Amino acid sequence: MKSNNKGGALVGWVIVLGFLAVTGFFGYRYWQNSHKTVYQFDTQPAKLGDITQSVTATGTLNPVINVQVGSQVSGNIKSLGADWNSKVTAGQVVAQIDPALFKAQVTQAQGNLDNAKAALKLANIQLDRTKDLRAKDSTPQSALDQAQATVDQATAQVETTQGALDLAKANLKNCDIVSPVDGIVISRNVDVGQTVAAGLNAPVVFVIAKDLSKMQIDTNVSEADIGNVTEGLDVDFKVDAFPYNTFHGKVTQVRNSPTTVQNVVTYDAVISVANDDLKLKPGMTANLTVIVQHKENVLQIPNSAFRVRMPEELLAPSPSPAPSASTAAAASPAQGPDGNNGGGKHKGGGDPALRLQRTVYVLPAG
To answer: In angstroms, rounded to a whole number, what is the distance separating the alpha carbons of residues 172 and 99?
Structure first.
């Protein structure tokens, strides 16, 4: 009886252990499947279209020729011959300084000149008399020398007073402030009765734009982008005054003089603009796009496809195939799975030259 009991207990333990083994196996498989990583991909189709490489910048519209008209003499503004937006011609009087003081200076200088000429005439008469007396030995040589010196001094005085008269006449003429070019007044800085003080820096009375139908944009292009900007490139730009209009221009000059503001280095690229309808005005801020390159009907792949990090367990030992025009998944990143730049070595090694390439991963059908 005891042997039968022992045999039955043994069979029971075997059944229990077998049940636990089967349960543990299926439980482990269930746990493993529940913790398995499931990858989801956002895909977009590759397509043909136009691609443009551009540089964006901001700038200010200015006339091509901007003339600042100043005053060479000081005085009160007596009258104005032009105002804001007035069209002027070269030689036109745009303002006049009160000439009364300068007329008086001309009169005074003219009187001094007449007096100097009279003194010279008298000195010449005295010189002639002294020469006659000296010929008769009736006066010493020193008297003749003195008479000659008096004539020379009177001659010099005439020249000095003549110069003073010319200066007074020039100042009187400069009371009339004239426009040096044909153009339009874009700034008037004085009013009638205002005093203009001319010193080392001539005060700016008017600012005249020679031709507003031809303008230019002075832009600030960062040093990171200036290498792509060259003369002759096309430019599209907009201004806040006409947000729905796109204007066009062309790069005419890239200046080598840098501008540094808070450690930010920029360069001035000059954009020529036609303004035949006079919509654009000086001082407007232009948001422009310099078209560096433009290609038509080329394969387009989203930029995000080139920045994807593909999990290593999904990579094949060899590089992925070339991109297909049907459906493109995300592309390889600028850094490959191993941390190297440019789609680098895949799992299992690869050609080091591929580190300089970028890979577009294509999901297989289904």
So the answer is: 6
Which two structure tokens, joined as six digits, stand for 166?
């010319």
242: β partners: 239
Residues 6+ apart with CB under 8 A from 224: none
Tokens linked to 221:
């292009």
Per DSSP, which regions of the chain are E strands?
A: 47-63, 66-70, 75-80, 87-88, 93-97, 176-178, 183-188, 195-196, 204-209, 214-222, 234-239, 242-261, 264-274, 285-300
Report the alpha-carbon distance of residue 62 to residue 245 in Å, rounded: 19
d(CA 127, CA 134): 10
State whether residue 362 is helix, strand or coil: coil
Instruction: Give tens-digit pLDDT for 149-189.
Output: 998 999 999 999 999 999 999 999 999 999 999 999 998 98
pLDDT (tens digit per residue) in 240-278: 999 999 999 999 999 998 999 889 999 999 999 999 998
